[in-house]
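Reproducibility note. Readers wishing to regenerate the assembly model reported in the main text can use the exact inputs given here. Chain order matters: entities are listed in the order in which they were concatenated for prediction.
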Amino acid sequence: ELKVEQNPLFLSMQEGKNYTIYCNYSTTSDRLYWYRQDPGKSLESLFVLLSNGAVKQEGRLMASLDTKARLSTLHITAAVHDLSATYFCAVDIGGGSNYKLTFGKGTLLTVNP
Amino acid sequence: DAGITQSPRHKVTETGTPVTLRCHQTENHRYMYWYRQDPGHGLRLIHYSYGVKDTDKGEVSDGYSVSRSKTEDFLLTLESATSSQTSVYFCAINHDRGLSPQHFGDGTRLSIL
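Running the prediction on these inputs yields the following structure tokens for the assembly.
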């Protein structure tokens, strides 16, 4: 059974600071996804990482994937209040003709002024 | 907006009653998914479909059934609702087996009293 662990689960940070969210998974996979969810809203896709060493950046967020270590990171640079949300990583375990995701429990990020 | 509509958006019902949630897409995507989201658990896959009449179980499928008689509709049924099925239910779609992210609907908030 695939396990996907995120840490920290809760993160309170000041504006302007940097921090990293970690996503570890227990089974071989080379597909990992990051999503953002605002309170009471749906999930919004942030990044799709499809190979070892993949790095994607959008604004103040950068995601990377190390398939050998079974680890993905979401790095936040110079945080701003608008980044406050819950962030989920998800790993593809489907294989073959199927495709399905296992999600981490999410990291609740609060950026304080 | 990825063209996904969930209905109803909110529902309150009593234990033991049948409940059907509908996910409708206008994207002609092959893959469709039902998840539930509960505090402390992230998103958990209930059932998914990889084509018309082709469905499979996810990690929390007990007490749920699904049907997909046409590409655009994926129905989730709780045959006899229990209080433990109180949750927020999300539908998601994908067309290319993970090369792009799953896109999520706005969710259905279901309360079972």
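We highlight two features of this model. The CA atoms of residues 29 and 95 of chain B lie 5 Å apart. The mean pLDDT of chain B is 95.
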